[in-house]
Amino acid sequence: MKDCNQCGKCCIKYGDGALSATADEIALWEIFNPEIYAYVKDDEIWFDPATGSKLKQCPFLEIISIEQDGVSRKYSCSIYLDRPEDCRHYPSLITEMIHDECEMIEAADMQNVKRSQQRLDNLMKASRRANYS
Asked: Mean of the per-residue pLDDT values for the chain?
């Protein structure tokens, strides 16, 4: 498994409403991060504060570089330390990464999914709750 290259595929794919935030996260944003809370509507995330309409992409995903050919991009999360728990837990499954065309996956990861899943679980240990399964 390669290191994350910040391709943004996961954020682009799931940033259009497939993510949620916990009630606790939303409450903390309301108090400590009003710039994030502004994008919450009816306890759901990523709504345009001006219009109230659902956004098609996470408003905190930023392009940080574009390769000269104009195709490859690197992305960054401007709320990385305060991002929703759903984001902190991704990726959770090798099969999910394969389905999402995650660029961290290598051919060897697909040949032995069980071993790769163990590597991923170890890699993501710091991002997951102690009782995560």
From this structure: 89
Phi-psi region of 76 (alpha: psi -120 to 50; beta: other; left: phi over 0): beta
3-state helix, strand, coil in the chain (%, to 5): 40, 15, 45
Torsion sign, CA atoms 101, 106, 108, 109: negative
- Reported as a single tens digit per residue, the pLDDT across 103-122 is 999 999 989 999 999 999 98
How many C-beta atoms surround the C-beta of residue 80 within 10 A?
10
Question: How far apart are the C-alpha atoms of 131 and 70, rounded to whole Å?
Answer: 42
Residue 73, classed as helix, strand or coil, is: strand
Give residue-wise pLDDT tens across range 80-90: 999 999 898 88
Q: Which residue, chain included where needed, has tokens 């170890």? A: 122
Backbone Cα Rg of the chain: 16
- Taking the CB of residue 108, how many other CB atoms lie within 10 A of it? 10
Phi, psi of 113 (to 5 degrees): -60, -40
